[in-house]
Amino acid sequence: xxxxxxxxxSKSDDKQRAELSTLSEEDLMDGDVTVAIEYSTLxxxxxxxxxxxxxxxxxxxxxxxxxxxxxxxxxxxxxxxKGDKVILNGFGVGEVHHGGFSQIGRVKGDWLVALPGGxxxxxxxxxxxxxxxxxxxVLGLEDHGLRPADGDILVTGAAGGVGSVAxxxxxxxxxxxxxxxxxxxxxxxxxxxxxxEVLDRQEFSDPARPLGKERWAGAVDVxxxxxxxxxxxxxxYGGMVAACGLADSMKLPTSVAPFILRGVxxxxxxxxxxxxxxxTRAWDRLAQDLDLETLxxxxxxxxxxxxxxxxxxxIAGKIRGRTIVNPVA
Length: 329
Description:
Layout: E1 3-12, E2 15-24, E3 33-41, H1 44-51, E4 67-75, E5 85-89, E6 104-107, E7 112-114, H2 121-143, E8 153-155, H3 161-172, E9 177-181, H4 187-193, E10 197-200, E11 216-221, H5 225-233, E12 235-243, H6 257-261, E13 265-268, H7 276-289, H8 292-297, E14 299-303, H9 304-307, H10 311-315, E15 322-326
Parallel strand pairs: 8-9, 8-11, 9-10, 11-12, 12-13, 14-15
Antiparallel strand pairs: 1-2, 3-4, 3-6, 3-15, 4-5, 5-7
């Protein structure tokens, strides 16, 4: 059987260990499509998995990495044939099924999306799960009826992967975007990707009042906790928040006031189990809306070996933009 390199997380005596290993195809899990992985990415959830900071990995040993792009090597799924370019994210990959930090992957074809025309596999992982989640959030705001004339859109965790791509997408569509970050030193970076204004996260860190001044027509929030509670209290009448993360906290210390007095909508964004129609819509819009040159400017490429040292950095908020993983570098 063909051998390949992959990061493997194992567990012994309640201690988790991640290391680069040599595997064979017989080590892969069940699936009807085998893919030569060309790129993956480092996401927040991957950082939690590699560092062991949260119980993301639920079976051992496991190859982490919640997304990948590449070329089909072998397929018994009617949707794909050898040579097709595909994208994978979600469905428990990198959690209960071997993931993208590998040179070869085998998954169910129903989990895969065909690479949109005009997008390379590298660009697809420049987007990755973070950017795909950002697109789902933007689509949520649009489906709610929000338009640029309605007012400012707030994006929290702005220097991270979701935030960076959300700003790019919203700015391209003509929205005035206000970025919230704990790293005000990244102000120039955030303005370069499309933010009109940058606010310090500290403004959203204290316990929220039931209602504050109406400021935002919409918001994309990756934080949760007091940050999200403050954002909700400042929403304009009829506004909407797309909630897609918990970088601050899983808790939400708020009241019903924004919902029953201002008609605010809080929409949860799930990137893991979205159906094929939703996924295809998001990826087609990404291929249409993203400025690939700007996307390239926020990407850093690393090897599988490099990934092992970056888990704690991403969960500490020390990585900006997107980190592309090249498994053959």
